[in-house]
Amino acid sequence: MAELADFLAVDLGASGGRVLLGRWDGNAFDLQEVHRFPNGPVAVLGHLHWDVLRLWGEIQAGLARYGTRVDGHLAGIGLDTWGVDLGLLDGAGRLLGNPYHYRDSRTNGVLERAFRRVPRREIFEQTGIQFIQFNTLFQLFSMLETAEPQLAAAEDMLMMPDLFHYWLTGRKVAEYTIASTSQMLDARTRCWAAALLDRFGISERLLPEIVSPGTILGPTRAEVVDEACLHATVPVIAVGSHDTASAVAAIPDLDADSAYISSGTWSLIGMEVPEPIINDQALALNFTNEGGVANTIRLLKNVTGLWLLQESRRQWQREGHDLSWDQLLARAAQAEPFHSLIDPDAPDFMAPSDMPATIRAYCRRVGQPEPDSVGAVVRCCLESVALKSRWVISSVATLAGRQPNVVRIVGGGCQNRLLCQFTADACELPVLAGPVEATAMGNLMVQAIAIGYLPDVAAGRRAVGASARRETYEPQNAPAWRDAYARFTRLLEA
To answer: Environment class of residue 136 by beta-carbon count within 10 Å: exposed (0-12), middle (13-18) or buried (19+)?
Structure first.
């Protein structure tokens, strides 16, 4: 087999998407951006949806840019997205309406109603997944409650990456890592939790075959080849189709002594373990056991991350203050330390219309001084996310029965130097930040393993390490951060 090959990684996040080219030279991937486009919710008649057909058009546009502009051997295409959201198909394989966005209000209050149907403990015992109101299980349950016509007409349910897999290849499957985010999978058997779903009134006939990361789904459909000027069919590979699964797969040197943070709109914080950890403590802490690449489990907790800053910046832009990220971080660096702290995961911050005003209102409510400037708001967000990271890492270490000696941060958030330093300070552990493009790298790595260019994940992680720059942050100012953490834990307890 030739050493040189091209792979395309389609990476769809909650705020944007990319089609990236990974050129494999036998040692490392040279990553090049082919196409970038925005993503986000669309409000229609009081509900939030994804504009999924536009996303499909952007994917095709990215493939066409490769097909018409790049001369190379395209060995594979892999696709990953955010978790939990779904599309419904009718009997002819047609999409029944635009998928709902996970922040849509229709699942407000659904957990309490769901627990009257099946107790919380029983759901966790089977699925091992943390309780968030927008998990797929509760999205479907809310649709059943309101007798949504789409659900009544549906013959198939596909998670978001699986929907695009279907449009690329014509094959309907559920890739394991994305299926695990649904809270509909038995964490131990890795099959659909049929008895649990039946108690909720969810028909197992909607659910496709589950396949493992690295499965070659088939060649691109002829129409895709023609539309994208690809000249020949290309294998489509089910990678770690949940973006966090791909990101964690790509973390160089990840081992039993490491905690990780996949940092972006959300911070996914945890450790890699061989089997799910499902016990009373994990339930009480609301941890999750999501599927990973190569038969691993991602023991982690979802924490609100850069969403706080993204929404604050969006509000300031609406008010006519278009500050760059560098300007925001510079102001935060000059602001008073630990002036105000928030719980990033308080319900207040789920979908506010004005994030800075919501942060100030939260601080008033809990008896703290309000952040009174742009820099103070940014610093409040960053310090609070860093302190929540320490709380989660301490909790996951207890569950896993081992203490990490390093925190490895990947994803877009590792470009935020202030957040990386604050995380090292809060956790009192060195932070190794990078690669920024971990999700795309993990996507490419699994493709290369599936096609035969790499032997396994260990070799893939070495290849990623050779492909990307990383930076180390050492902890500083421990006494002040310990005092802040004590104050923060009192806030969580209250």
So the answer is: buried
Cβ atoms < 10 Å from Cβ of 454: 21
Give the Cβ contact number of residue 222 at 10 Å: 10
Which of 6, 85, 243, 425 is catalytic? The answer is: 243
Is the pTM above the cut of 0.70? yes
**Residue 228: half-sphere exposure toward Cβ, Cα within 13 Å:** 28
Is 226 noted as a catalytic residue in this protein? no
Pick the CATH number of 251-434+455-494 from 3.40.1790.10, 3.40.50.10860, 3.30.2310.20, 3.30.420.40: 3.30.420.40
CB-based burial label for 43 (10 Å; 0-12, 13-18, 19+):
exposed
In whole angstroms, what is the distance from residue 218 CA to residue 224 CA?
13
Q: Which CATH number fits domain 5-243: 3.40.50.300, 3.30.420.40, 1.20.1090.10, 3.40.50.720?
A: 3.30.420.40
Tokens of 362: 């939260």
∠ Cα 32 33 38 (to 5°):
160
- pLDDT digits over 61-116, tens only? 999 999 998 888 899 999 999 999 999 999 999 999 999 999 999 999 999 999 99
Q: Are 425 and 481 in contact (CB under 8 A)?
A: yes
Closest CA to 443 of 48, 87, 50, 11: 11
As a whole number of angstroms, the distance between CA 341 and CA 352 comes to: 18
| pLDDT score recorded for residue 229 | 87
pLDDT tens per residue, range 241-290: 999 999 999 999 999 999 999 999 899 999 999 999 999 999 999 999 99
pLDDT tens sequence across 165-215 = 999 999 999 999 999 999 999 999 999 999 999 999 999 999 999 999 999
